[in-house]
Amino acid sequence: MSTASINNWCLTSVSQAQSSLIKSSTLRPSIVARLNSPASPPSLIRNEPVFAAPAPIINPNWREDMANQSYEEAIEALKKLLKEKEDLKPVAAAKVEQITAQLQTPSDTKAFDSVERIKEGFIHFKREKYEKNPALYSELAKGQSPKYMVFACSDSRVCPSHVLDFQPGEAFVVRNVANIVPPYDQVTIF
């Protein structure tokens, strides 16, 4: 085997003795190119959260929003706005009454329970999907042979099964950061 390095590329050819070890019945020249880089590959794993977008407000709460300003600042800003735009007085009065009523009404909404949400999601799947199509899930329990392999981003806002309307067993789905498909490192090419 001979090796030559050109501009950090390593070119290797296989000798006849080595090629006899290869299952190929004919002898043909082979060249392998491998990029040798002394620098370590970039690290994509961080010990801090990644925020692609601001967190959505699922259930806005007036009490939390109003806590950002003092009461006096809010009143002064409202007075200034109403002086500039006289036609907003009836709208502002109605809104103030609505907010006052909301703040005085005791909220009987429970705090969001993430574990309960996951349980409810599973129960919904069981009732609406699994129990309504037992033949499909019985077949999937025996094996799978999907026609597709989809590489998709791990972003929670985009679910490949929903976007592409895949049913269980139709596709292998690989989810990772930024849809990156790592290069296949094949040492020799014949």
From TrEMBL:
Alphabetized Pfam families for the sequence: Pro_CA
Keyword Ribonucleoprotein (UniProt): no
InterPro entries per record: Carbonic_anhydrase, Carbonic_anhydrase_CS, Carbonic_anhydrase_sf
PROSITE patterns: PROK_CO2_ANHYDRASE_1 (PS00704)
Source organism, top-level taxon: Eukaryota
Residues involved in Zn(2+) binding: 153, 155
Stated family: Belongs to the beta-class carbonic anhydrase family.
Protein name, as recorded: Carbonic anhydrase
GO BP terms in the entry: carbon utilization
Catalytic reactions on record: hydrogencarbonate + H(+) = CO2 + H2O
EC number(s) from the headed UniProt entry: 4.2.1.1
Cofactor binding note: Binds 1 zinc ion per subunit.
